[in-house]
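Why this split exists: single-chain examples teach little about how molecules sit against one another. For that reason, every record in the complexes split bundles all components of an assembly together and asks for one structure covering all of them. Below is a record exactly as it appears in the raw files.
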Amino acid sequence: MNYVIIGNGPAGVIAAETLRQSDPQDSIVLIGDELEPPYSRMAIPYLLMGDIQEAGTYLRKDANHFRNLNIELLVARADKVDPTNKKVFLNNGKTVNYDKLLIASGSRPVAPPITGMNLPGIYPCWTMEDSRHIMKLAKKGARVLQMGAGFIGCIILEALASRGVELIVVEMGNRMVPRMMTEGAGGLIKKWCEKKGVKVFTSTKVEAIEKSGNSANPLKVKLSNGESLTVGLVISATGVRPNTEFLKGSGIVTDVGIKVDETMQTNVPGVYAAGDVAQAQEFYTGAQMVNAIQPNAADQARIAALNMAGKSARSQGTMAINVLNTLGLISSSFGQWMGVAGGDHTELVDEDNFRYMHLEFKDDILVGATSLGLTQHVGVIRGLIQGKIRLGEWKDLLLKDPTRIMEAYLARTQGSNFKFAA
Amino acid sequence: MQRSLLINPDICTGCLQCEMACSFEHFGMINPSKSVIKVFEFHHDGRKVPYTCTQCAEAWCLHACPVEAIVINKETGAKVILEDVCVGCKVCTIACPFGTVNYNHDSGKVMKCDLCGGDPACALACPTGAITYVDSDWTGLERMRQWAAKTDSRPKAQA
């Protein structure tokens, strides 16, 4: 069997390893268009902070890992897929043949449609190459403006702040992380950032970027509130979009991402998709969604690879789970954090200590949550939601004190007289 | 023979010796907030339930780690955090559906039960035998699996 995987991020790598476990003989080709060994974009903030070197971002630390597994790494970009003849056309003019194909081409930053985006000194924070540019310009005392305070934006804030830059954040939404956090949590994160000396504009757009004529801060950023700011570096963190363009004309059905079934197979038999590029059924609503998070990439990659290898594995639905560290304030959100029709919720707010907990229920089942300042046993929220654990009398206890999630889980999953092996 | 922690909440008195021993073993200080075993108290029925990582076969934490900082110790089977590789991204803390990986603000890394390299301090410290470290077969590993399966939402694989 000839397996080809487009994309060497976490999904591509985990799929390749899972395929190798299934068969020691099959040919496995892993295609990536960046020069570095497979690395984790999630580790880039820690590279910017100086906590790790580039090698610390590598998905696999053993330099011979892929060679030892007989996984062929190919540096190229896939330009076209021809499912009829089972070929992938590469940007270096070559083609590779496959019997089964996994598309794990990930996503890429979307540049906002404003004038001046092509000026020097404006970068997304996405690739290793981006991070090298940012490190050159984000020196101590530099003025840095970041467009977007979503998930990625908030994560890199800390890295930038730790480099001693003067930070300005501009977000279109009415709060920070508007697509991942409740209004209460997003508002508190903004307050926290301001307390830490970061200037935050919400409900504000960047309207244009021009040359300022000042050599230290060569960029002039015009905001929708009428203000103009001169800065030395603009970081564009206004969202990402799945890499699906190269599939045009292939017959592989795409919407926001590549549509897949519960086995991660696309509409074309033998062609699968996983990770940031896949649009799969959501756990609770059943709607098809792109869930661009690391654990989802890992899960989907494993499911895709098992099915490609002729085994049977099905997704029970993807669920958004996020954890974020914004200048030391830890936040998380899970599932239907925004609530569901006919559901109810509870919210605990301690503004002075930046503690916050919001739980969403449907009947006596937890369906979503948002938290700030919670670092202990936080994963059990996932267990409660995905396990669809009936909370019984514990729902009322949680409505009164939503921090008791771990106790609720223990009480509802272990009867008395129950011994368990830990 | 692989061994596991066997926890019997019925004979736990809530003395917290396990938490103290755990924090001392891992951080050189007696500070239950640094313990990776935690005793939960249920006041209404007086139950005390020590709780920690089951070293589950699914290893959600390990698979979710973006930098290969969680590995399996071949001797104990424990899923162990490599502190020098962990970047502190906390994805494992939300991926573990049992809630047994925690973030440590002081170190900027995550922490979880590592079975103390094969000699768990909590089991040694427990005065009532509520926590013991015994052969996995004997503990009824099967029962543990059943318990884990109750809340298991991972994709089902039939090999």
